[in-house]
Amino acid sequence: MSNSYTDKLLRVNLSEGTVKTEKINRDWQKEFIGGRGLATKYLISETDSKTDPLGKENKLIFVTGPLTGTSAPTGARYMVVTKSPLTGTIACSNSGGYFGSELKFAGYDMIIFEGASDKPVYLSIYNDDVVIKDAAAIWGKGVWETEDILKSVEGDSDSRVAAIGPAGENKVLFSCIVNEKHRAAGRSGVGAVMGSKKLKAIVVRGTKGIGVSNPERFFEDINKSKEILREAPVTGQALPAYGTAVLVNVMNEYGGLPSYNFRSSQFANAEKISGETIADTRLVANKACFACTIACGRVTKLPDNASEKYIVSTSSRNWKDAGGGPEYENIWAMAPLCGIDDIDALIKANWLCNDLGMDPISYGATLACAMELYENGAIDEKTAGMNLNFGNAEALVKMVYDTGHRSGFGDYLAEGSYRLSKRFSHPEFFMGVKKQEFPAYDPRAVQGIGLAYATNNRGADHLRAYTIASEIMGIPEKTDPAETEGKAALTKLFQDATGVVDSSGLCIFCTFAIGLPEIVPMINSAAGSDYSVDDALKIGERIWNMEHLYNLSAGILGAEDTLPKRILEGKIAEGPTKGMVNKLDKMLPEYYQLRGWDDNAVPSKEKIEELGLG
Amino acid sequence: MLIKVKFFASLRDDFGKEAVCEVDQNSRVEDLFHKMKIPKDLTKIVLVNGKSIEGNMDYLLSDGDTISIFPPIGGG
Amino acid sequence: MKSLRVDISKCTACKQCELACSWHLTGQFNPAKSAIKAFVFDAIARYVPYACFQCDEAWCMNSCPISAISVDVKTKAKIVDKNSCVGCKVCTIACPFGTISFDSVTGKVYKCDLCDGDPSCVTVCPTDAILYKDVDTASTPKMSEWALRLTDAYSIKEANL
Amino acid sequence: MAEKYLILGTGASGLSAVRTIKKIKPSSDIYAAFSDDHPYSRMLIPYYLTSEITGEKLYDRNEKFLNDLGVKLLPGRKATKLFADTKRVEFDNGEIIGYDKLLIATGSVPVVPERWSSFERVVSLWDYHDVERFKGRLGSADEIVIIGSGFIGMIFANALYKIGKKITIIEKLDTVLPKMLPETAALMFREQLMNNGVTLVTGDAITEIDEKSDKITISTENGKEITGDMAVIAVGIKPNIDFLKSSGITIKDAIIVDKQLKTNDESIYAAGDIAECPALRENGNAIYPTWPAAVEHGEVAGSNMAGEKRDYLGGLLYNSVTFGTISAASFGRWNDTDAEIVRWKDPAKGRFIQFCIKNDIIIGASLLGDNDRIGIIKGLIGQGKKIAGDFLKNPSAFANEFLLSNYFAGNAYKG
Asked: What is the pLDDT of residue C150?
């Protein structure tokens, strides 16, 4: 019977230089749907949680979901699962574009990379033809040039390339894996793991078809979802018109847009780098990921006079070409958080992050931390190589390049803000959880997101439980951001539901309009499964607990489910949220209880049994 | 009394970025919307001095308030 | 007479058209076997849906040695009769627009057949970048008009110009 | 009275000329003379040979097409003499037919050395009768020798390979498909042929063929002896225009025509393999003996004959050939020695792409492997525009180049 799985995985041993095709474990597929859940199950089964993330015992898994490559709206996603070198936790980074679907069209749900190569290589996939090739000619090059070269070398402009840039090669701890030049498996340093394996890129071309189990129902299901996505104001109008960047002004008005490394929660010049300003002055097109009917992706162009400003020499970058982004998170991290309001410096830095293969959130946040260290005298101009005052746009652009190449002070930045702040004796300047930097919502102003950050299995992050949807946007229901009550349940529900979305191959942004009652039927009619919404939530809970157990066994214990002192005690000084702190202690015990975990975040035997994780 | 009104995203197409509106004492948000002809169905988030009114259109305005009005927005 | 029209300022390169077309042609999702393709030009941020123009004196049709390509009475689409096609590929090199291709799996050629007057690429396009409209009523340029400034070389004659 | 059109030959040119004339002048009076019993497409003979199509299918369609258009068919007639001054053609059955406008579209005939032409087991497979004769013996023939590795040799090699015959190909030159592939590609093609079990003898010419009752033995210059059950001769073709001697029509290698496919006689046009027509954007005339070119010739000639003036874009040689799953195609002047060459290859995937570029204009290409939207290469060469995009870096992106140069007027990357 035909369904939307290919049922095959590629196992690539980079130490041995071998490629094998295997059948996907059907039982696991049923237990975890695919994507994030399935790959995590493989990683946990095949590796030791205490392994060195950058050692060759760690594995790097690329995985798709059953809806990846189908016409289910937003069915573009692939995920990269590995042990994170930044956090030491499980890492699952998620990306769109065309790469994931192309992998399916080549006939694979998943690739497991194991071992490490002695010399730089890339993996070339053309349907059944899978070859490990020498990457000497592209090692050291930026992601963009790498993609162009590989398309040219492989002779197919429809090839899709996922690559690391110099940042991944140099094992920058927040380096990412970039596909289609502007889409990235961004957080937690998955690029460094790829770099540690000397794997420069994967180039894939597939010409095989993907079927669905019940076409008639599938088209009914997806048409219903598409209709909802079209009619919903957020996915039908707001995201297409302004992308995610529209949030800059929203969060700023709320007093929840952290600036100056969380010393403030508003940014006076937010308007200058807002979604509205970008749409009016820099935006040239919307670009969608594969099968996406929303098209939140921004494509911007620098004005002619801006292209000469803050030039750093990078590969073949043509500053006059259009490029992707910037998105909300990136804008925030590299502008307000660093006190910078230069939109063109921001766009350049964002492009450079993409080209060098680096997570702009962690980069921006680490630079902000360095700026605070600098202004506090912990770092001097000699050490930094330049003045690192908040607001220095030139530093923003220059330091991206130096960080990606680990040159000069960039070598310190490349370690992320947790290690940087410790190195310069001010660990309290690290603004994040489990060694990963916060994203763009002040957890003092928005209570629920604080709990989500604290309990997140991959460290501070907004994409595992985007409570902002409820607390700020009112989706699916409005809750008061200042209130702690109900946030434990909200966070748990979002965490579990997100696990399902991530495992399906859909983009989390579809949930601004549709929910599991729409998503689960699409999975079923494509994959030939018969999950109920409750089954799906159970799978989400299973994934969450599986990831959590991995972290516990890796030595990342409940004590790390916390927030920095500045967030818990340092009241917001000014603005509409003046005086607020995050009241994590009011939410965390309840959260543990709802999870069936004890005070140390250890799941009860019953819970483990109930979820089949024994 | 004078109220500063800030508009965002697509609302700027019709209302511009910012306006100052004079309303009577004891006016509610509802009254201001009425006076400025702001269609309620196009707005999703209304903040008064940065605080969400949580859908309460009867919220009483005070002189010098800043009101921020957003259409439905999403992001992440 | 209706024809495919494109507004390239609206295309987001989401490839829903390719998915729908390949499903129509093969019963599977397989953009590599789609008759329409959304070309991506990143450096200039332009995305261009591109398919057969259904030209009147169609090279593919006229060059087919076994008359496997004919004009659909209703839509004026040039359609391939899969039973007749022997896979000689003459049409694929004769069409200067490259809008008919060989499928090595089936051993036959495939092209846009306008889905019997209800093109699925149009139905699924989320931004209305692809339309199927009458000549007189639509202000959106025809697919051919965008692509074809080939006046010196191949003067294209369309059924419905 | 309606003008009377006489068409000699019902191949690709003849058929497309008839179609074009009828479109412009539906009530025109058209006579079509041809030497076989039925009008059929020679392109289909390999498929008839393998029984992929039936005999009916081979000629029914063309016959029905011509009948439906009201064309008067004159089967079994070979033209023997042209009286241009009196506008008449004499045929081998003694008939003489007059015309107002004449199209010569008599195609080519195979070159078969006289001394082997009577051999039972050595055939050219040129026409229906050859094939019928050959088919009768095919059952008992397992090993077939193909003499010549050009387009025709290769399509018959492929047809016979498809029905399970053991194939040996002998080529006088050093590489296969010499008119379609440069050496690198030809070697790749050769390797794939050999992987499919084909025996290849290149750089060697035949000296003698010895026909026994059930076997043939072929001797070569290099002293090889190659045996087989049958041999197919595909060493070349020549224009079928012997009957034009002393007709006053200007002939060099073939009939010289102008941009309207008109000969030196106002009433006489020539199309297809026998026309030596102006080259695309080059000085001089040449012969373009391929099927799709013949179709275009027929259209241009037919249009001009019917009074609708139309200029031919100019001759472009392009062709495509397949053996098993291996495809090759060539367009225009892919081997121009003065041109810049952009090349890409991947031997592991059996793919090769070479473009010839002169003054920033693409003038030819040669390719191996299946390439989607390959016709665009004809479009690129035909339009003669300067290269607009990153094409030189990645010639496999020829379709992108075509769109870029047309949609964005060629200045897309100028910023």
From this structure: 44
CATH code for D325-414? 3.30.390.30
Average pLDDT of span A101-115: 98
Residue owning tokens 């087991």: D121
Q: Which two tokens stand for residue A452?
A: 């989500």
Range of the domain at A132: 8-205
Q: What number of other Cβ atoms are within 10 A of residue A129's Cβ?
A: 12
Is residue A2 one of the residues assigned to a domain?
Answer: no
Per-residue pLDDT at A269: 97
> Can you give the pLDDT at residue A312?
61
Question: 308-347 in D: which are within 8 Å (CB) of A?
Answer: 344-346
C-alpha to C-alpha distances, D184 to A153, A280, A334, D188, D353, nearest whole angstrom: 17, 53, 52, 6, 10
Q: Which residue matches tokens 């500045």?
A: A566
Query: Does the beta carbon of A474 lie under 8 angstroms from any beta carbon of chain B?
Result: yes
Query: Is residue A579 domain-resident?
Result: yes
Q: What is the pLDDT of residues A201-218, one digit of tens each?
A: 999 999 999 999 999 999
| Same domain assignment for residues A278 and A404 | yes
How many independent structural domains does chain A possess?
Answer: 3
pLDDT tens readout for residues D156-179: 999 999 999 999 999 999 999 999
- Provide DSSP, A4-51: S---EEEEEETTTTEEEEEE--HHHHHHH-SHHHHHHHHHHHHS-TTS
Name chain C contacts of A98, Cβ cutoff 8 Å. 15
Beta strands D361-368; D96-98: pairing state: unpaired
**CA–CA distance, D405 with A43 (Å, rounded to integer):** 48
In a shared domain, residues A309 and A277: yes
| Structural fold of domain C2-51+112-159 | Alpha-Beta Plaits (3.30.70)
**Are residues C82 and C94 in contact, defined by beta-carbon separation less than 8 angstroms?**
no
Chain C, nearest residue to A107 by Cα: C30
Which residues in chain A are contacts of D367 at CB distance < 8 A? none
Tallying the residues shown for chain A, one arrives at 614
Strands annotated E in D193-284: 199-202, 206-211, 216-220, 225-228, 230-233, 237-239, 255-256, 268-270, 275-278
Question: In the structure, what pLDDT confidence band is assigned to residue C117 with cuts at 50, 70 and 90?
Answer: very high
Q: What is the ipTM of this complex?
A: 0.95
Q: What ranges do the domains of chain D cover? A: 4-109+238-305, 112-235, 325-414
DSSP lists the bridge partners of residue D331 as D318, D365
Cα distances from C104 to residues A56, A330, A611, C78, in angstroms, run 41, 45, 47, 21
The tokens describing A585, both together, are: 């202690």
CB atoms within 10 A of CB D402: 30
Whole-number Cα distances in Å, C36 to A286, C99, C114: 20, 8, 10
Tell me how far apart the alpha carbons of residues B41 and B71 are, in angstroms, rounded to a whole number. 9
Q: Chain C partners of A207 at a C-beta cutoff of 8 Å?
A: 30, 32-33
Residue A156 to residue D415, Cβ atoms within 8 A: no
SS3 letters across B44-63: CEEEECCEECCCCCCCECCC
Please state, in angstroms and rounded to a whole number, the distance separating the CA atoms of residues A173 and A193: 9
Q: For residues A290, A295, A296 and A300, what is the CA-based torsion angle, rounded to 10 degrees?
A: 100
CA distance A121 to chain D (A): 17
CATH code for D112-235? 3.50.50.60
Task: Give domain D4-109+238-305's CATH number out of 1.10.510.10, 3.30.420.40, 3.50.50.60, 3.20.20.140.
Answer: 3.50.50.60
Residue D242: CB partners within 8 Å, gap ≥ 6?
A: none
Least CB–CB distance from D349: residue in A129, A152, A320: A129
Contact D380, D406 (CB under 8 A): no
Partners of D400 on chain A (C-beta within 8 Å) are 157
Each residue of D268-280: pLDDT tens digit? Answer: 999 999 999 999 9
> What CATH number should be reported for the domain whose range is C56-98?
3.30.70.20
